[in-house]
Amino acid sequence: MPVRFSPDGMLDVATDASDLPFSSDGKVALSGAMTRCTNLHLDRQGVASTRKGSTRLSDAAVGTPVHRLVEMGGARYAFGGTQIYRNGASLGVSGLTSAKWSAIKYNAYNVVTQSIFALNGTDRKRITGSTVAEWGIAAPTVAPTLVGKINGHAYTQGWELSSGHATAESSYQWGTTSGNYQISYDWEADITTNSSDSATYRNFWYFELATDYSVSGQRIGVKYTYCRKSGTTLECESNPSGAAYIEAETGIYATWTASSDSQVTHVRLYRTLFSGTAFYYSHEVAIGTVSDNLDVPDASLGTEVATDHDRPPLGTVVAGPDFNGYCFIAKDNLLYFCKPNQPEYWPALYYVEVAAPQETLKGLSLFNGQVYALTGRDIYLNQGTGYQSFFPLRQSAATGAVGQDGILAVRGAGLLHVGTDGVWAFSGASDDNITNANFRPVFEGTTIQGIDGRVLANMGNCWLLSFHGKLYFGFPGGSATYPSEVIVIDFGTKKVVHYDYGIAFSAVCVDDTNDRILAGDTSGYVWVLEDATVTTDNSVAISWDWQTGEASDQVRMFFPRSAKYDVTVGGTATAQVLLDGSSVQSHTLTGSRVVTKRLVTGNNGKRLQSRIYGTGAVDIWAVELD
Length: 626
Prior knowledge:
The protein is mainly beta. The chain is built from two helices and 56 strands.
């Protein structure tokens, strides 16, 4: 009975080739099972075709390795080595750490322009267009310096006062050329002493005593903040400085320390009421000025200064926003979250302890509108709707994740996460290994049927990506550090194929604007994968390989005499007839669907199969051995 093989079944390297399924229509034995399907896609039912090509972009190589790729507004951002690049050009940031980055795209409720918020455990950056700034604004570290209110009149010799302004118990400032200092005195009692001071030339200001500061014996406190404004909109403000105090009746002239952060556009000043403890907004001053009077009356003071504008923690993973506008950061065993809709404000107490201190959170993912935190062995749902209601709940998952890039939530498929033994799909009710049945030996470290066994020590570099209804799973095989092997699973048909690009990709992302996959290789180049406009890998013909399961009969022998190949070849192709695992006949294939009978020399065996391999474009419909 003739045996017909076609590529309409499943790729399976875990099952013995002779145990793969066969059927019969009474005239022909039929099998669609495959033991190899490398660099071929199965998008059309019953046909295996060369996968789409890839293109290396013309950008110069960026820092290596490429740690992260993000597309925003049609521009591609690459985090490589110690630099950040936009469309291949360095953004000129120095002093960064060469480490894996994690990033989200978001903007605060009062900010129109979207930004990338990224961190790597040491650095925290906000990227908008071609500008890289700190993520959040650090609070001033130096308290302001306060003296009595300066009215602006200066005298350079001796002691003089404008007529009518000297009153008992008044407080005045005087100074030397090396700095200002303040004295309080009773004018009538001490004028002789002060006038006979050995310093002949002094700077002297007189003070116009304001009503707000005329209460004797009480103090007023002052703090200041750094902030970023866009026009009249306050986008971000730091926590306040430490406080400085002065006697209330003197008036207030404040001097502060300028910020070294280039994103800061203004300084905001806050003061208390008489002997008060709360600090209220007085006014703001554009950068370039480091001193000013605080003469805003009590009735005109604004809101109380915020003290919950902490910068994000130095975590390793960021995710968000969720449906309430919270963003999340994993650091050690803790899960931090920002103020809702305000990704630059991370109050110090906004965190929950997810796991034991001995465990580390490997990654985060939003799934069904809620955030999940994964350790190496567990999955935790952070249930709740906000501050004081978030609570981690351990899930009944079989395993956790090896790294952040190996975590991906896909609607309809579940929360996908990579363990040391392949890809798992967590649905909330179950956790199933979706690669185990077909690729178990590979994830036990065995190289089989052209697929290199995984490198256990480097599984933390695995990545998952969803694009056009398919899951792309990259893992390091053989001796690779970064993913060199790619398994592609069609979510609709459940069919699986294997891709081998001949190089390792350390980072991938979906370019939504241009509808394509971007990938960064370990040499620092950025590629477009699954590029339907090309049929090569950067002008190099794609090598492909297809092999069937085995027709097996332990009682009867196979005596193949001829072969027919329903194949269209645009490059090179060689077909083999295999008996008991060894090739007994090879045929060179050319043309389009030329099904001429090819003779096979006399041989026999208990297991019969076919293999076709080559380069360039190919479409494989069927092979029939008789």
